[in-house]
Design a protein that fits this description.
transmembrane helix, Cro/C1-type_HTH, Helix-turn-helix domain-containing protein
């Protein structure tokens, strides 16, 4: 998540980061999804983002760096390099939103094409309506999950269930 945060702070696409770092787009995608990065990839990313390589390594101890490197604004560099839970949730929400909009665009384009095919091949029977309704149900389900219209299974529900399973508070 840290690589993604740093990339987004600069307004860079994964393709741009790939170009400036010399790392493949696929590798950047894997790193942003949480897979372990090789040392050479970490060195390259640290150089591009102008940060210490230890900031990118999960086993690095951030607390000692935070105390020693405070800026006059009260915020230190290493705390800015950490991804907060709120930032992580926001990034996950935006990814879900992006997936939904992609789904919606695909639904519209494919159904326009199918409508045209239906119109020219069998204008007397609009079979495309069955496709639109079936896929529309899936799209509506995706919208409900993305925009959280009904929060039956929200974070509070998850926490309660985990605590119930553990028999104690988290």
């Amino acid at each position: 998540m840290l690589i993604k945060k740093l990339r987004l702070q600069r307004g860079w696409s994964q393709e741009h980061l790939s170009q400036v770092s010399g790392i493949s787009v696929r590798t950047i995608q894997r790193i942003e999804r949480g897979q372990k990065a090789g040392l050479e990839s970490l060195k390259s990313l640290a150089a591009v983002f102008e940060i210490d390589i230890t900031s990118l390594q999960p086993e690095a101890d951030m607390t000692s760096n935070q105390i020693s490197s405070e800026h006059s604004s009260g915020l230190d560099r290493s705390s800015q390099l950490q991804v907060t839970i709120e930032e992580q949730r926001a990034m996950e929400y935006v990814q879900g939103l992006k997936a939904f909009y992609g789904h919606l665009a695909t639904y519209i384009i494919v159904n326009i094409v199918l409508l045209a095919v239906n119109w020219f091949i069998t204008p007397g029977y609009f079979w495309v309506l069955w496709v639109m309704m079936g896929w529309g149900i899936g799209l509506a389900s995706h919208a409900v999950a993305t925009f959280e219209f009904f929060n039956f299974f929200d974070a509070d529900w998850e926490k309660r269930e985990i605590e119930k399973r553990l028999g104690r508070d988290l």
